[in-house]
Each structure stands twice: as structure tokens, then as C-alpha cells.
Design a protein that fits this description.
Elements: H1 14-38, H2 46-69, H3 79-86, H4 88-100, E1 101-102, H5 107-119, E2 125-128, E3 131-134, H6 138-149, E4 154-155, H7 172-189, H8 192-213, H9 217-222, H10 227-236, H11 247-266, H12 272-331
Helix pairs in contact: 1-4, 1-7, 2-4, 2-5, 4-5, 4-6, 5-6, 6-12, 7-10, 8-11, 11-12
Transmembrane segments: 20-38, 44-61, 82-101, 107-124, 136-156, 168-186, 193-211, 217-236, 248-264
Protein name: UnbU
Keywords: Membrane, Transmembrane, Transmembrane helix
């Protein structure tokens, strides 16, 4: 299969690229501070292993996809800058999976999670505005798969984000994350409606669970003050590539994740944040596929109806048009009232010295009426 021209369209629009760049910088800085100041418990080598895995899988799958689709890889044509921008999603995904999951000393499980997270973008896809786009949140899905396949694994303990901070500085970390995350989501990703729906829905489900199942409402609401919740709210659930962009779509998605979390927690299912997000993404993917199938079916029905309408019109046109044509021709007035054997009359026909036999009240006759009879007569100019 031959490759297409070297020119490739931009993978993301500039606004999304800027958001990805800031996401990547934020999570990188957080990892540096996490291992040097905050108290991250994963081995310090693991982030580098995660990044190497994510980069390798992303480039390999892009090469395979480009070859299958007959186009140039999307990281070519932009130089080193283009390659870096292409790897932003893999960078974010790899660091997030390593940072938010805890797999004891089994590094290969973390590597497996990164491979699943990056690879799912090429498997779980749906048509969006005429293009195939991934609908599953990669980082969240990779962590969810780890939790399902390896029951002994868990998410990173929340305390490791502020383990070595005290004297009020443990509140500084979530405050910084909230400030930077809000600026990022308000100006670039434009997912503030999603955040508001998610936070409001989370508080609502905590109250409902307390009223229905007699759980502690303050304890359920207190979860919203943790660094893990703040990180999830600003950097996980707001992924611009796997969430709706419309106002009501964002509200439905954020509220849906909160409702699913409440149901899972009421069923005593742990790690409900990750499973609820994965379920919401799966429901959205099913909706996108259903909408596309219905739209195509309606388009086909419209084409078939148009074809039938044209066929019926063609079948009825000869029998319906011919009877009306004859009366129309019969009723049409003669273009000239000159007798059939009259000579060509000059215009106007009712002049005082008429050189031919046209009646006095006749119109100008088209020339020639009878040029052979008298070549001296003057034809009327057409």
C-alpha cells in the first residue's frame, strides 16, 4: 500500500494542543515534587519506565495505523516540536497510570496498565463528526483494568500526596491544584459545566446515600477535600478527548459519573471513581455509535424516498402533460392576423399606403409570407 503525501493535518487544534501541553507540564512538575517533597511511594525509576512504555506504544500504533490507512504518521512533518506535541497524550497517560495506581513491587503490572491505557485509543473508538475518535478515558481505563485483573492491586494511597507536609502546608497542595486546574479547564478545555455537574452530583449522591442507607453524610462529603478527589476532578474526568463539548452534554456526563459512583458505592464496590468514569465513557461510546447508525439509516431512507418520488414523477409526466398541451396550443392566439396567402407586410401593417394585401387591422407579419410571388415587396425584419 502506498503512503499518502507527506503533508498531514494537525492532530489537535491549537487550543487543545495548548491544554495538553499544560497538562503534561503540570503532571510532570507534580511527579518531581511528589518524589522529592510530597512522599510518592512508587520507586523513582518507575515514571521513566512508564514514559518509555507509553512513548513506544504510541509511536508503534501510530505507524501501524498510518500504514493501514495509507497516510503519513502524524508525528512527521513538524520536526522535533511536532513529535513532542504528538507524544503529549502518551506522556500524560503514562505518568497518571504510574502515579495513581499502586501495584506493590510488580513493575510489570504498571507497564501492562500503561500499554492498555495507550492502546485503548485505537480499539475503543466511535464516529464523532465524521471521524473515528476514542471515547474511553485512557488513564482511567488502564487503572480500572489493573484493579479488575489484579485484585491485590489498589490505587495510590491518598496520604502519599501530602505525607511529608504539615503545619497547614498539606492544604496548600490541593489549593494549588484547584487554582491551576480551574484556570486550565475554564480557558482551554472549557469543561467547567462538567466540573460543576460532577461536584454537585457527588455532593447530592452523598446526601441521598446518607438518607437511604444511613451512611455518614459528613464522611462522604469529606472525601471531596482530599488531594486525590481534587486531582481526579481537574485532571482526570475533564479529559477533552473523551468528554462532550456541549453544555448539556457536559452536565449529563458529569452528573452521570456522580450517579454511577453513588450506585457502585451503595453496592459496596470499591474504587468507584474509576469504574464510574469507565462506565460513563462506555455509555457515551454506545450512544455515539447508535446516533451514527440511526443517522445513516435515515439518510439511506431519504435517498430511497427521493428515488421513488422521481420514478413516480417520470411515469406520470407523459400521460398527464400531453392532454393539456393540445388545448394550450389550440387556445394560443395566432401570432399574426394576416391571411395565409398574404404577402410580406412592412411594419406597421395599417399604414396609409399599404403595399400588400394585409387587412388594415392586421399586425406585422413575419417575413417572408410569400416572397416568391412578388420580389419587390419589402419583408418585415425579424
Amino acid at each position: 500500500m502506498t503512503m499518502s503525501a507527506p503533508h498531514t493535518a494537525a492532530r489537535h487544534n491549537p487550543k487543545v494542543t495548548t491544554a495538553l501541553r499544560r497538562f503534561a507540564i503540570s503532571i510532570s512538575v507534580l511527579n518531581v515534587f511528589g518524589y522529592t517533597v510530597l512522599g510518592f511511594e512508587q520507586p523513582w525509576l518507575w515514571p521513566f519506565v512508564a514514559l518509555a512504555t507509553g512513548y513506544t506504544v504510541e509511536i508503534a500504533l501510530e505507524l501501524l495505523g498510518a500504514r493501514a490507512e495509507g497516510r503519513a504518521p502524524r508525528f512527521t512533518g513538524g520536526g522535533f516540536k511536532g513529535l513532542v506535541e504528538f507524544l503529549f497524550p502518551a506522556h500524560i497517560t503514562a505518568l497518571a497510570v504510574n502515579m495513581l495506581s499502586y501495584v506493590n513491587d510488580k513493575m510489570w503490572v504498571m507497564v501492562f496498565g500503561v500499554i492498555v491505557a495507550v492502546g485503548t485509543k485505537w480499539v475503543l473508538r466511535a464516529p464523532v463528526k465524521g471521524r473515528m475518535r476514542h471515547f474511553m478515558n485512557p488513564s482511567n481505563f488502564g487503572i480500572a483494568v489493573i484493579l479488575v485483573l489484579f485484585p491485590w492491586a489498589s490505587i495510590a494511597p491518598p496520604y502519599h500526596f501530602t505525607e511529608y507536609l504539615d503545619g497547614g502546608f498539606d492544604w496548600l497542595v490541593p489549593a494549588i491544584i484547584i487554582t491551576l486546574g480551574t484556570m486550565l479547564n475554564a480557558k482551554l478545555t472549557e469543561r467547567m459545566w462538567l466540573i460543576l455537574a460532577w461536584v454537585g452530583g457527588f455532593a447530592l449522591q452523598a446526601i441521598v446515600r446518607g438518607l437511604l442507607f444511613d451512611t455518614s453524610i459528613p464522611a462522604a462529603l469529606a472525601m471531596m477535600t482530599g488531594v486525590a478527589f481534587v486531582l481526579f476532578t481537574n485532571y482526570m474526568i475533564t479529559d477533552p478527548g473523551t468528554t462532550p463539548s456541549s453544555k448539556w452534554g457536559q452536565i449529563a456526563f458529569g452528573g452521570g459519573v456522580a450517579a454511577l459512583y453513588g450506585v457502585l458505592t451503595a453496592m459496596s464496590i470499591a474504587y468507584g471513581l474509576f469504574f464510574a468514569t469507565a462506565l460513563a465513557c462506555a455509555i457515551r461510546g454506545a450512544f455515539l455509535w447508535t446516533a451514527d447508525i440511526v443517522a445513516k439509516k435515515r439518510a439511506e431512507e431519504a435517498l430511497e424516498l427521493a428515488a421513488v418520488t422521481r420514478s413516480v414523477s417520470r411515469a406520470e409526466a407523459p400521460s398527464g402533460a400531453q392532454p393539456d398541451a393540445a388545448p394550450a396550443q389550440a387556445e394560443a392566439p395566432a401570432p399574426c392576423a394576416c391571411p395565409a396567402d398574404a404577402c410580406s407586410c412592412p411594419a406597421p401593417a395599417n399604414t396609409e399606403a399599404a403595399p400588400c394585401a394585409c387587412p388594415a387591422d392586421a399586425c406585422s407579419c413575419p417575413a417572408p409570407a410569400n416572397t416568391e410571388a412578388d420580389p419587390a415587396k419589402t419583408p418585415v425584419a425579424a
